[in-house]
Amino acid sequence: MRIERAGFRPAITMLAAIVAIGIASTAMAAGIGQPEEWQIDLQQMVTPVGHGIASFHTWLVWLITLISLFVLALLAVIVVRFNERANPTPSRTTHNTLLEVAWTVVPVLILIAIAIPSFRLLREQLVIPAHDVVVKATGNSWYWSYEYPADQGGFRFESNMIPETELKPGQPRLLAADNEMVVPVNKVVRVQVTAADVLHNFAVPSFGVRIDAVPGRLNETWFRAEREGIYYGQCSELCGNGHPYMPINVRVVNEQDYAAWLTQAKQKFARSGDGRALQLAANQQ
Length: 285
What we know:
The protein is of the alpha+beta class. The protein folds into two domains: 2-92; 133-284, Immunoglobulin-like. 38% of the residues lie in helices and 23% in strands. The chain contains five helices and twelve strands. Strands 3-2-1-5-8 form a five-stranded mixed beta sheet, with no helix packed on it. Strands 4-10-9-6-7 form a five-stranded mixed beta sheet. A two-stranded antiparallel sheet has the order 11-12. Strand 6 and strand 7 form a beta hairpin. Helix 2 (48-81) runs antiparallel to helix 3. The relative contact order is 0.13.
């Protein structure tokens, strides 16, 4: 009897650990726009697609937890009821129609329960609604460049990581960039993503955005940020030795500030004869 009770202790310990992790996860969730120390949950989402991703992730975690607990309970029952002492004469049953149907149908139903919200979310990600702003993001080795079309000023600029020695208070290490991609709040932003040399990846966790930047190919994604602020991302493709130094900074502002920024950006950035943007203000210093 002592042996059987002792056998439950690892299971109880495991269950307690699962519960503790679940409770702690609410306290260890990341903030908005950037990661935090000891983070074990997703960053807080600020876009419709991001909310869908977070909800789908939570649904999968609960589903996986229930399946794991069910399997754990089955193992415990088998250990207790079918060990040699409790069941000295084992059954010779080889088939059970009801059981075989159940373990075939139940996994199919679980897969359907996963597939339906998955396909719905995938469609929402891929079908871009009518957009208000278009920005072209190009991955380079190892920095990002952004281009705004003619109806928004027709300028292009480069965005490089700020060295750690030049960071200002509040700017995160390896994530802050000198020039930010600026977009208006509550507007659909269509992002065209490509690369100039090797494979890169445009990823902003709080937007639920992650898409490959492929040389010679134009991929597209979208987001609609629901609140103002600055949101950090990084290249998420192993693109070379400068891979960890390709931050993505997206500043979301109100419409008035966005219009003012466009006016300043037109003056700060201009095109050279080959179509590349030059930071004239920086060159004059």
